[in-house]
Design goal:
11 strands, globular, 4-stranded antiparallel beta sheet, alpha/beta, 256 residues, 8 helices, S-adenosyl-L-methionine-dependent methyltransferases, Rossmann fold, 7-stranded mixed beta sheet
């Protein structure tokens, strides 16, 4: 089972609050022109506002459960916006689309690219290169590797937050542990969701998922993009397009 299938029902509770990247991507899509291809679209957090803004968008994800959670969001869209959206269950490394189909914007949202090791990242970018039309943009949004490398090793579980899922009548305690892999630019992140039913309900349950994140430094991303046929054109440190530095929260890469 894909780890995101395991935690799909909890994902939106922890990620829907992330909204700062939406205006950034709306602006990038407007500047680059459509259509748009999102790799790792999940439950549609970014896909839906892009469709509402008039973009024709294809969302790709390998998790069936995450795509299933996107469907109600799409159903709530006006009919014209819904008609502009296509969901595909696929692995980006082997994504097969018609040869004539190209996109003005291809993007990896919040930390999605970090699930790819070096070989998978190279294979994915090579697969995507022919899909980006001349003058189009590729955007990769990842955590600042300089900060991640300094604070990545905390193997003890810490309570991240307490959530309430009104749809299921549950209080959920979300725990996180980080474990750096010595000598490698890799962090294993374990999420545990512990649920308590309301009084009179079922017993508490626990769901655990372990995800591996790979991080690169800016010069390594530059080399990777060059080797796969792209040209790095901009690096930002936040969604307001501030210059990247060692204290930036994000590393946003724009390539052509």
């Amino acid at each position: 089972m894909d780890e995101y299938d395991r935690i799909a029902r909890y994902y939106d509770l922890t990620h829907d609050r992330l909204t700062a990247d939406v205006p950034f991507l709306l602006a990038q899509a407007a500047e680059a022109g459509g259509p748009v291809l999102e790799i790792g679209c999940g439950s549609g957090r970014l896909l839906v506002p892009l469709a509402r803004a008039g973009q024709t968008i294809t969302g790709v994800d390998r998790s069936a459960e995450m795509l299933a959670r996107a469907e109600p969001r799409l159903a709530a869209l006006p009919a014209q916006a819904r008609a502009r959206v296509r969901l595909l269950r696929a692995d980006a490394r082997t994504l097969a689309l018609p040869a004539e189909e190209t996109f003005g914007l291809v993007f990896f949202g919040y930390n999605t690219f970090m699930h790819l090791d070096e070989a998978a990242a190279g294979a994915t970018l090579k697969r995507l290169r022919p899909l980006l039309r001349p003058g189009g943009r590729l955007i990769i949004d990842v955590a600042n590797p300089l900060l991640l490398s300094q604070a990545a090793d905390d193997p003890d579980f810490a309570l991240e937050e307490i959530l309430f899922d009104a749809a299921h009548g549950e209080t959920i305690r979300h725990y996180t542990a980080y474990e750096a892999i010595p000598g490698e630019q890799v962090v294993d992140v374990t999420w545990v969701y512990e649920t308590d039913r309301e009084e009179g309900g079922e017993e508490a349950s626990r769901t655990r998922a372990r995800l591996r994140y790979y991080y690169l430094y800016p010069h390594q991303y530059d080399l990777l993009l060059t080797l796969t046929g792209f040209r790095l054109t901009a690096i930002y440190g936040d969604y307001d397009r501030a210059p990247f530095d060692e204290e930036s929260e994000r590393l946003l890469l724009v390539a052509e």
